[in-house]
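Appendix C. Worked example: AAA family ATPase
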Amino acid sequence: MLGSVQTQSLSPVFIGRDAELKRLSAALAAADRGEPQAVLIGGEAGVGKTRLTEEFLTAARGTGAVAAVGACVEIGADGLPFAPISTALRGLYGSLGPELLGAAAGQETELARLLPELGEQGATRRDPRDENGRVRLFELTVRLLERLGADRTIVLAVEDLHWADRSTRELLAYLFRSLQRARVLIAATYRADDIHRRHPLRPFLAETDRLRTVDRIELSRFTRAEVRRQLAAILGVEPEDAVADQVFARSDGNPFFVEELACSLNGACPTGISDSLRDLLLVRVEALSEDAQRVARIVAEGGNTVEYRLLDAIAGLGEDQLIDALRTAVGANILVPTDSGDGYRFRHSLVREAVGDDLLPGERSRINRRYAEAIEADPGLVRADERAARLATYWYAAHDPARALPAVLRASVEARHRHAHAEQHRLLERALELWEDAPEDVRSALRPIDYAEAYPPCDPATPLGFLDLLAEITVAARLSGERERAYTIAKRATHLIERTGTVDPLRAAWFWAQRSRLTEDLARGDGWEELSRARELVRGLPPSAAHAEVMAMIAGWIMVHKSGSEGIAIAGRAVELARSSGDRDTELHARVTLGLLRVDSGDIDGGIADVEEVRALVRDFRSPNMLARTYGNLSSVLEGAGRSAEAVRTAREGLALLGEKVANVTRAWLLTNEGESLLSSGRYEAALAPLDQARRLVDRTFLRGGIEIWLGFQALGTGDPERALRHHADAAELLRHDTQPQHLIPMRTLAARLAAGQGRFDDARQELRSGIAVGFPAGTARYGWPLLAAGAAAEAANEHGADRDVLRQIRDAAGRLPQPSGVTAAYALLVEAELARAEGGVDAAPWAAAEAAFAAEERPLELAEVRLRRAECLLAAGEREPGAALLAEAHGAAVRAGARPLAAAVAGLAHRARVPLPDAGDGTAMPGHPSVESLGLTARERDVLRLVADGRTNRQIAEELFISPKTASVHVSNILAKLDVSTRGEAAALTHRLSLFPS
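Step 2, the predicted output written as structure tokens:
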């Protein structure tokens, strides 16, 4: 019988889970090899997730790994963001100390948002245009873990992910995707039975299921045999069959319920076996002394963990009584001390929930009030980084709007400083709920300077108003991705303003500007109507920061959507307003916008000078967002002006100044600018490094699509059309929903050149027409002219003759396209020359004009192509000496750039004309007899050419090389184009004449 057996509720023996431990051990082994891993452990409440995690962490520490644990807090949705990550990092800080400080060196201010021990957080007011702070914080966390995991294995465990705040979920997802080559393993547990269809964790799990480095373990209930083993371990003796069967039937194999039933069956709990789950969970609590039950009820309402000093302050017990009550609760395995040793928590959250649910409404309010009053009387009772969120929760649960409203607003400010936009939004929505119920004197005591930053207040001494609150919600909702809610709130604000008619017009203009932005974000229009309303409202008003911000937004909209000249006056006014009101951030941003607008309007030198002036200022200003915008845009406009070498230097200088202070997407932007300018400079090999690095830094974004385009041009220019096609396909997929001409026009240009190179001239025409249909708004001439040149060249190369209608379309588009810079004027001459060639012209004069124009620009490969065409005309006219000189210059430029197709075309013409080519300067070119490598053929194309020279048909080539006849045909077409010959016979003859395959 069991009556005389002493029991313990927690099994001293770890039962089952061998397979799960093996999977966790395998993930640890992979992490040890430098392959970051993540494991999500799911299962119903009480199934043993925490026990499995504890056993694994013990084993991991035994191998030398450093492990830390953080638990999600059930009040996380009310404003305690990143709680488990902060706790885990605090654990690592306790273990590694100076090493963690070294790994965080230079970024302590930002990382202090997650780990306050690193120092003070960043400035309380943020640049309203800097919306990358959150991504920057995520990336710095990745880098911190990668540095810590360089020489040792780091294991982070996150418990109760089903309670995680949204910011924690998003940071974890970012870590899962972004950790590279580090000995890091992240394990997280969650209640599978709590994940209903609309639970926010469900999309997180669906997303992580697609990641190769994430494993998901689902814990099942115990079998009958495992329940029997668990009972034997708890009871110390083998249970009788009837008892084991009864416990298995009642618990249904849930390990935690087995523990509770073992206690009831033993008679240690006088109430016996209950008929309801709730009673089963409460049965041992009700067996405690009155003082112990009182303490348990207080702890249940305090959150996951309650500090001892806080308990002492509110329990209403003497110190000896409190210690006795805690000893009783701990001895009964109801409460357990925290790992830090300064507080207590329930051993299992199911019991805490049952105790909390058993509280009477008035009792719950009273306990929460005591918590809040104690913390306000002695703030040192809780951690400083948790204080605001916990006070907000306690006062709200105490049903005291007068105390809850300011507490919730303070917590929203803390969330904002930590870049936890979703939690800030939730708290502000709660403040909106409390607003009307809070007394007027409480609202009047609130000041915008303390709680608001979305809309710059004209008079900080005035009370925080309802519109200030709506402004904060608008921005927080937008930054957290809740654009629909942001639009609704902004619309509510404008309707309220129109209804009352007494509000400051600046405030009304600000809300209309927000509506404009959200209208565009939600694809409900271009937002100009809303901006026009804002513009009318601020017309004639005296200078202020709000006025400057609205005008800067209008100028920015015009820069993107309309002609540059229309926005110049508005941007200039924004600069004046910002300067007179002392708003340095807005002034600098408006000055950059002004410079870009001047460039777009045709005043390139003046616009670049404007941005250069800002660059000189921001070198010392050191705002990461301002630095990135200035250097990114300056390098872009320099490239558009044809000043590619200067653009490369600018992009590199910006990257050096920014270091790791900005988000990866910003670094990728500057790297892409560098790569594009290196391509323009004819430095194909050098361009590959920044473009590849940029590609690794960003995932599925429009910027990634742009990177794929430039990588496609690099592959095409170096003679790898197959890789170029892959890059183009990736770009087309990434840019399916993009409408930006700076991406779409180059993508069409790349596609047209690829199609023409493969003899698909109808496809090339379609790409040209699609590119022209995109339109050429202000600032896109740098992309439009290369498209027209590619289309005209394709028509000239078409052996079946040019399409007159296509030539007319090119001429019409060229007539509309401006020539704001020397490089665009050179392209215009190139288009004219190609159009003349397409119409059968052989006059060298158009090519001479284009050559002279490109000779003055930093475009060596365009110059080489023009010289090739001009040489062709001169040689046809019998002018061998000038033609040979041009071919020599063109060939040298092509070889130096690694432009193998161009070098092959030059060599082919030289061979047909019996013109010897001198050495290009690096030994890669041979006089008169180019090598097969110099012809720009890929390895596969060289194999095909050898068989063509042997007289093989496409089918025979396909059989020989184990490819399809269609693929063989494509290779043959590419070879004919690269050798600049028309037939297979000419290709074979050229191969034999040059002795390309001497063996």
